[in-house]
Structures are given as C-alpha cells and as structure tokens.
C-alpha cells in the first residue's frame, strides 16, 4: 500500500531517528576505536602516543578477561532462564481463576518500578547482609549459620537480584500472551484427549513462543550492560569473582584510569555484543515476523 | 474456559497466587516498613514486623541531609522530557515502518535495537568528553537527550508493533477523504493509537526514571536526579538501615505510585508484538 | 462529472506484472463493476484509480485531466472499503463529517450536510454512536455516507458487501443500486461475486490475471461471452463446458451450455447420465448429473422435477443456446 510519494515521505519521517541514532552510535564508537590504539592514562598524562595493539593484548592476557566474559554470559543466561521459567509458571498461576487478579498484578509488577541501585541496595543491606540481613536472621532462627551471599556466591546473588527486577516484565508479557490464547483451542485439544501437560506442551507453549522471543530479546539488550547491580553489591568482587566485561572496563576507566585499555575493552565488548546481537536477531527474527 | 470452577479449586489457586505475589513484593514492602522504624528496631534481632516506636524521623533526616526536591524535580524533568521528545521523533518513524514497510524495515528495526546493545561502560569516556565539550555535561537538556536516544529504539519498536495493528485501510480512507499526511497522523493515527502511545510513555518514563548509569556519570550537582540521590546513600553500616530505607522509598515512591495507577494501561501495550 | 479513462495502465510489483496493460473508458454516470476471481488485479486496478498505488506506466484521466500523478485526496473520488475503514474513535456524525472538515468546510454547514446524508441512509438515530456499536449493515451505510458528502466525481467500492451476511448483502445491493439511480454519479464497484456484477452493473469488466477479458452490459456478457473464461465466470450455476467429440462435431474445441438451457428427459436425449445430487430450492431444482464421457454437468429444472440420486436422465441442449469456443478459448461466431 504505497505510492512513490508516500515512500519518499516515509523516508523523510524516518530520517531524524536514523540519523540521530547513527550519530549517537558512531561518534563515541569512533572515539573509542581511536583511544583503544593510544596510550592514554589519566594518572600519567605526559605519556602519550600510539600503543599499537598493546591495549588489546593486555585485555586478552588479563586473567580476568575470560572470567569477565563467562560471567557476562552466565549473568545474561542465568537471568533469562530464571525469569522465563518462573515467568511462565507465575503467568500460568495468575491466569487461573483467582480472587483479586488486579491487586495481584500490582504486587507482581512492583519490582519493575524499583530503580536498579535501590533494588541492589535493598537486597544487599536489608536481606543479604551477613549480620543484619533478614535472611541471616532467618537462618539464625532456624539454627543455621548465616549464608554469606555476596561473599560466597557473588555472581549467583547478582543473578538472583537481577532476576527479581526483571521477573515482572517477563511475567506480564507472558501473561498477556497467555490470555490471548483462545480457549477453543484448548477445548479442542481436550476433546482430542490431550492431558493437561500435553495441552501445555503442544498448545500453550507454542502459542507463547513469540512472547518468549520478545522477552529474550529485550532482556538481553538490557542485561548485557548491567552495571548498577554489580557496582552497588559486590563491586566485582570478591577478587574478580563477579566481574563482568562491562564492569572490568569500568574499573580500567575509573579506577585504573587507563582510558586506552578501557577503550580497547570497550571495543571488545562491542564486538561481543554484536556477536550476541547477530546471533539473537538471526534466531529470533523469524519468530518476530508479522 | 467456560467450565464451572469449583470454589475449592479457586481457593487453592488464589492462595498459591497470593503467596507468590506477596513473596515477590515483600522486599519493597519490607523497605517501606523499615523506613518508618527507628534505627535500633530496624536491625533488631529477631527482626520485627511491627514495632511500637513508629517514626517519621528518618524522612526528616534524609530531607535535611540532601536537597531532595531538586533531585526529584530533575528526575521528573528528565524522564518526562526524554519521553516526550522521544515520542515526537519516534511516532513519524514508527508510522513509516508500520505503514510504508520496505524490504529493509525489519533490518532497520533490528539495527536500531542493536545500538542499545553497546555496553555503556565501553563508551563512557568518549561520552563524558563529548558532553564536556558540548557543554551538555551536568545539564538537564544533556540528560534528556542522552536518555531519549538511549530509549528511542524501544519507543520506536513499541509504537511500531502497536501501529501495525491499525488497519492500513483506515489511513487510506483518510487519504481518500482528503486528509494530508499531517492530518492523517494527527486526527486518525494518533487518536487511534492512544492506548499504545500511553503505554509507551509509561514504560519510557519508568526506564528513564530508573536509569542509573548515565544519570550518575554525566551529572554532578545541577542535573543530578534521584538515581544520584540514592547513590549518595551508599554502603551504610548497621545503624543506618532505617534512613537508607527512607531514602530508597523516597526514590522509588513516585514511580511506584505512577506505575500502580498506570498498571492496566502499561500492561495493555507492553507486548512488543508478542500477542497477535 | 466523472468520466475516467485509463490508457495503457500497467502495474508491477517488482517482477510481478499484476496488470500488464489496461485500456478502459468509464463514462460519466455509469455503474461499472470490475469482476474476476481473487488475485485477478481488480482491486489493484481500483486502487490505481484511487491513487493509493502508483501506476508503473500509462495514464489515468479523470474528467479529461491527467490525474496519474495526483495524490488520492486531490482526485475528487470517494472510496468505500471492504472493512468499511470507519474511524473507530469518532462518532458516526464525526465520521461522515471528516471529509468536509478536511476540505475546510465550516462546521455548521458540514453538520447540516452530514445530517442530510444520514437521513438518506437511515442513520439519523445513530449519529452519536461510535462505529463499534453499530451492526455490519449500519457500518456499511456510514462508510457510504462518508463517501456521499464529498460529492465525488466517482464512487469507488472495494468489495463492500463481502463482510455482510447473505440477507443483508441482498438489501445493500438494492440500496447501492438505488443510490446510483438517485445520484447518477459514476460508480466503480469491485467484486468477485458475479451475482453482484449482474444485478448492479451498467457495464461489467471481467478481469483475469490483470487482463480485461471482456467489457459489456450484463446481458451481453451472459448471451455472448467473448471466451470460455467469461462464459464460465458469468452465470450461476456455472455454464457446462464440454470438450471432445461433441465439440468437434460443431467445429469447436469447447462447447458450453448453461444449466438453464438443458432439457431434461427421463426417456431420450443427447446425453445420458445419472443424477448424483438433486438440490431442491422449491422454485428450481439443480441437478448434478454424471454424464458418461463428460463428468458432472449441472442442469436447472423447475421446482416440480421429481428426480433423485441414482435416477437416469437424458439431457439435450436447447436449440441455438450452445456456445462454441475455439482452440484459443475465444468464442466462434
């Protein structure tokens, strides 16, 4: 449904978004590429010049690097797995005939409105704190040793906190998808003799594929650059146990104040993000066709 | 399903659902509760759900210690400003993609989303320098721009999926009725898409309000919003719990209340085309 | 005024030539129906006239002026869409007034005009309702009302009745025909339903694969189909098309006999067959007869035909009612 003039208009109306996003992406990226080949240390401003690929090799040789990458992937994968599995279960539960569906939804959606640093600080101080945290008290009440969540299981704790933040988002999208499933389909399957489990497996789950795809796509975008949660809770520690690639770059930039290295790390992160992006878009794109 | 639901079954699911919901909500509830306790009862062992010494002291302490109204105002201006500006740029773009789709439309959309995948930390220094050089550092307009651009792909995507549900024939009818493009968007598309636009607005106000990387790194004092306010209450030791809770409550309450009231609206549009 | 002339109009989407080349003249005041099977390009042709699509080449003239490059709004045409395309957020009155508002008419005059149109269309009691609260037929009338108030050079209808149930469709058919007789404005009407074409049109344009197969009045098409395709498409039930020795005997590749032009006998006739299904409509009886060597033939008999499944019948074409078609499908004269 289009004429040449409407196509021309369309391009004109797209232009501001495309140009602005392009500039927003390309200028910092170009500068980062430039810095990544330079010697650029805020602590020794006199030393300048070309660094060649030394900034990159430093990153690749750093023991934290591969840990950072695997932590990043674990964080994204872990949160995705938790939010989708529990999201589906909770959506199924809320979709049942229950009293007070409205208030229920309000309660479930609430964590989504909580600012990440606040969420992290609530969990860190009010719940996971080894002396005063509610979980420590609960453990003591049961006569057990308090678990040192952020010390013993730093990455796991961060995954948990982040999952709590994103669970509402996943649940709501999945719930909306669930509610759009026609009951006739389920009734037909029931007539065909399908058990509750196989109705879920063969009717409900396929119906939710699109929704799950959307959840994966959106959450990945946000999770790849998770920062506040780590900064507030573990600062990447203990040691480097919960350091992700973005956090490692941040440490290089603002703690070691080595802009060249941070930039090199940034470029690596961008490449990694693009690999994930291409992988995602390829496998997700077909589900999003409309 | 049209089948009769036995009360027992309904009771069971109600109990289960409420248990899960309360568990999910509990951390928020506990924070709000703690904010009204004295520091001593906040860390009492065993923890007390209700104490005798309710107090508003924490709020007045936090209020006195920092300039809350300024942080709050900055948050409001930045989140609403970036959302409105984003909508103004995104509505035409989403119109184009939804109603004059080309072969590359989907690729374009995916490219837009991929710009969001660039880790913020990777471009922190360039961004910092750019903001310094252009005089946007620590200004509201700077943050409005940054957050607008950061969320623009999501805005466009949401609107796009929403616009796609509007039958193209209706816009064609408007064209046949003599409407110019401006009138078509103004009188037909926008009113029809009000629920979608409202939902997009809500989501983006939330995302902008809760953004805590650029809002902290690109501001110092003047433009700092509530994310910076809460960052200044970091790492408290034991006796600081109640005040931290009060500050946290103050930081999240506005958006929490807005979210509760807008919940229905938000959920309706929050599908990203996931529901056909 | 509403004379529309298409000259060598072509439309391609990429490599697909939806309309290879069309020449057509639509006279002022004519009711023209574009008919053809789905995908024949009839809707595309209408949208080209409307200006909702660009022509790949060729020209479209409206009232003697070249309108090929004009945007839809400037062509002075009005269109009724298959889905009605009412503005869901506006009341019926606002819907009908919208074109006038866009034309810059002052609200008072526009209201008056909308109310007048509503009166003609029996919508007066529904003016404050939203489209969602109307029945299919009422929505259809609102869509027509919106078109009428523009006082267009021509009305374009894109399968406007296909979303209505059978009874309503019959009523709306009459209403649109009456409307045409009152307004005497050019109407171009797209449908895949040959009954609508036959009953409403002054002139029928039969399309297939983007080509015009035949243009003519309904009876011309019925009595003198230019080719086997038109013969098969116009008339209900379909014309029986037979090949083989019977056709060769009259020097044709294919011969066609309409169901209403076959004599039924239980004793003797040209073709012998067995009744497979007898559809009793009361006024008529449609027999589906398995004829040896020709497959199923359809025959229309009177309501009193007393034949059932399995009965043997003999069929004979009425004299002079057999159509002959050559190797290329074209009618032989």
UniProtKB/TrEMBL annotation, chain A:
The keyword Metal-binding does not apply. Keywords: Cell membrane, Membrane, Transmembrane, Transmembrane helix, Transport. It comes from the Bacteria. The chain crosses the membrane at residues 12-37, 65-94, 106-123, 153-175, 211-231, 262-281. Coiled coil: none annotated. Its main location: membrane. InterPro entries: ABC_transporter_permease (IPR051393), MetI-like (IPR000515), MetI-like_sf (IPR035906). CDD domains: TM_PBP2. Residues 69-280 form the ABC transmembrane type-1 domain. It is found in: Cell membrane. It is a multi-pass membrane protein. GO terms for cellular component: plasma membrane. GO terms for biological process: transmembrane transport. Belongs to the binding-protein-dependent transport system permease family. This is Sugar ABC transporter permease. It comes from Cypionkella aquatica.
TrEMBL record, chain B:
Gene3D superfamilies: MetI-like. Its main location: membrane. Residues 72-262 form the ABC transmembrane type-1 domain. InterPro entries: BP-dep_ABC_trans_perm, MetI-like, MetI-like_sf. CDD domains: TM_PBP2. This is Mannitol ABC transporter permease. GO terms for cellular component: plasma membrane. Signal peptide: none annotated. GO terms for biological process: transmembrane transport. Belongs to the binding-protein-dependent transport system permease family. It comes from Cypionkella aquatica. It is a multi-pass membrane protein. Keywords: Cell membrane, Membrane, Transmembrane, Transmembrane helix, Transport. The chain crosses the membrane at residues 12-33, 71-96, 108-131, 143-163, 184-206, 212-233, 240-261. It is found in: Cell membrane.
TrEMBL record, chain C:
SMART domains: AAA (SM00382). Signal peptide: none annotated. Residues 4-234 form the ABC transporter domain. The keyword ATP-binding applies. One of its GO terms (cellular component) is ATP-binding cassette (ABC) transporter complex, substrate-binding subunit-containing. Keywords: ATP-binding, Nucleotide-binding, Transport. The keyword Glycoprotein does not apply. GO terms for molecular function: ABC-type maltose transporter activity; ATP binding; ATP hydrolysis activity. InterPro entries: AAA+_ATPase (IPR003593), ABC_transporter-like_ATP-bd (IPR003439), ABC_transporter-like_CS (IPR017871), ABC_transpr_MalK-like (IPR015855), ABC_transpr_MalK/UgpC-like (IPR047641), Mo/tungstate-bd_C_term_dom (IPR008995), NA-bd_OB-fold (IPR012340), P-loop_NTPase (IPR027417). Belongs to the ABC transporter superfamily. PANTHER family: MALTODEXTRIN IMPORT ATP-BINDING PROTEIN MSMX, MALTOSE_MALTODEXTRIN IMPORT ATP-BINDING PROTEIN MALK. This is Sugar ABC transporter ATP-binding protein. It comes from Cypionkella aquatica.
